[in-house]
Specification:
104 residues; alpha+beta; 3 helices; 37% helix
């Protein structure tokens, strides 16, 4: 199992609107690709002095093949939409994580 993690610091001036847009538009569009099985939104605590709020948006997929297909077929357009809407209001970085053990 692979977790695709997007960590994003969003400017205070658009944070509430951005979070609604992520929940109502962007994340559903990512999930509609059919390549991810679940999504989690996490807020980083203790970053209030950064001028923004930091979130970790995590998407789970079954394999690197699924992720690579997402990257090649869907990610460019979805990222472009986000970048245009929130230009100069965010900083983001992406990481890939492989799940070694999952306990519930």
């Amino acid at each position: 199992m692979i977790i695709y993690n997007v960590t994003i610091n969003i400017d205070n001036s658009v944070q509430d609107e951005w979070l609604r847009w992520m929940k109502d538009k962007h994340i559903p569009d990512v999930l509609k690709t059919g390549l991810f099985t679940r999504n989690t939104i996490l807020k980083v605590l203790g970053d209030e002095d950064s001028g923004g709020h930091t979130y970790s948006i995590q998407y789970t997929c079954a394999s690197m093949d699924d992720f690579n297909r997402y990257e090649n077929e869907y990610a460019p357009a979805l990222r472009a939409e986000h970048d245009k809407k929130y230009k100069d209001k965010f900083v983001a970085f992406r990481t890939m994580l492989e799940v070694i053990q999952w306990t519930e």
